[in-house]
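Problem statement: downstream parser choked on a complex file, so we are re-checking the raw output for the NAP run. The parser issue turned out to be on our end (a line-ending mismatch), but while we're here, posting the original submission so the record is complete.
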Amino acid sequence: MKVLLLGAGGKVGSVLGPRLEAAGHDVTGVGRGDAVEPGGHDAAVDFTTPEAVRPNVERCLAGGLACVVGTTGLDDNDLEALGASARDAGVAVFVAPNFALGAVLMMRFAAEAARHMPRAEIVELHHETKLDSPSGTAKATARLISGDVPIHSVRLPGLVAHQEVLFGGDGQLLTIRHDTLSREAFVPGVLLALDRLPTLPPGLTVGLEAVLG
Ligand code: NAP
């Protein structure tokens, strides 16, 4: 595929670009201040900032380009608007709060645990430059396990992306934990999303679990 990679110079983008090329994709990198030119591409991938992502993706969708979005910080209004633009353009916009397979499994296991141990709290820990808080993954986990779950956010140097879901019961504690140790963790999920993009219905699809099978 000819892929427009928005945020190519960022922490995720700089890992993703070479790996997409190695997987056979032809990548055009776009950074802050560069024009977003959807023409001549098959798909866009966005790992930018909460401020940049919506205008970037709107521009790609208006140019008829299906999009894979990893940038977090989009609220329900943003998602609804992007879904409507994608439907109008007849293409898919795929948004995942976490492209790491292990994190998706953590959320799935947490949903199962919550059926039996309803008292839960989430601790999410990220590098100090992460702009949004709480993380998209923590919010998605909270929605999955009941909605009204306290989330504690830690921002410190040395961390990448980590989350614990703690379930307390009489005389016991269950902890489900996932650690992203490097940004390589996001590559297989993005490759899978790009692979499935042409088969998705026009409009919004959310979550890696929707394409995992
Ligand atoms: P980062 O290192 O700050 O990278 C963001 C990049 O986007 C920077 O190179 C920035 O350029 C560039 N940028 C800013 N505005 C832009 C624009 N209008 N058009 C194109 N590029 C623009 O951040 P990161 O750690 O790579 O993370 C990026 C996003 O992905 C964040 O929202 C993060 O939370 C999210 N994320 C999601 C997942 C997931 O699995 N879904 C995983 C990791 C991260 P400058 O340096 O010039 O500002």
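For whoever reads this later: The first strand starts at residue 2 and ends at 6.
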